[in-house]
Design a protein that fits this description.
Structural class: mainly beta
Oligomer: single chain
Largest sheet: 7 strands, mixed
Helix content: under 10%
Distance between the termini: 35 Å
Number of helices: 1
Number of domains: 1
Number of strands: 13
Order of helices and strands: EHEEEEEEEEEEEE
Strand content: 35-45%
Radius of gyration: 19 Å
Shape: elongated
Length: about 200
């Protein structure tokens, strides 16, 4: 007997981090698990999880804000009468590189994630320290959105990142990953051939 079709998750893992230590990948996996624990509070099929590759952005004293827009997609070819829950978060690491080596600290980075009509609150990092050996870490809250599988579901996601305080000359290098989870209704099987994408490399 042939095996049933398997769901597709894309992207499926973090690759080639630029300055993240190995334990960072484990923390990303832990955050995915946190998302899953929220959406799977009711018994049902195990949720699908997805993690993007590492994304990069740069803030400066003349450009203190960045807005990253992408589309999360859920597609079930047979379009069953079923509603799923999409959860999305982000894990970020920031490193401040000042123009003047005498500058020692400069404000904080804050971030929030929006998913469709759901928007998380702002979360702030600890103080940025110049050329720190360990980057400052920050994670967003986890907004959720309902999707009907009766048609292809595509939800706009927005990650907003800001450099707050008194930005000094120099740049803040920010690396981040998106972490997604797809939860299913209690008592219903996972639809065959369902595809879950984060819309990022």
């Amino acid at each position: 007997m042939s095996s049933p079709p398997r769901p597709t998750v894309s992207p499926s893992g973090v690759v080639s981090p630029r300055f993240f230590p190995r334990r960072w990948v484990a923390r990303a996996a832990l955050l995915v698990a946190c998302v899953a624990s929220v959406a799977s509070s009711n018994p049902g099929p195990d949720p699908l999880e997805a993690t993007s590759s590492v994304q990069h952005l740069r803030l400066s004293s003349t450009s203190t804000r960045s807005r990253q827009v992408f589309v999360v997609g859920v597609v079930a070819p047979k379009h069953p009468e079923q509603t799923v829950t999409v959860g999305l978060g982000a894990l970020l690491q920031a490193r401040w590189v000042p123009d003047d080596a005498r500058d020692t600290s400069s404000g904080v980075v804050r971030a929030r994630m929006s998913l469709g009509r759901s928007q998380s609150t702002w979360r702030s990092s600890g103080p940025l320290v110049a050329n720190a050996e360990t980057p400052t870490e920050l994670r967003t809250d986890l907004p959720q959105e309902q999707c009907s599988l009766r048609e292809d579901c595509r939800v706009e996601a927005v990650l907003e990142v800001e450099w707050e305080g008194e930005p000094r000359p120099g740049v803040v290098e920010v690396d981040w990953v998106a972490l997604g989870e797809l939860g299913f209704e209690d008592g219903l099987d996972m639809p065959p051939d369902v595809t879950f994408t984060l819309g990022l490399p």
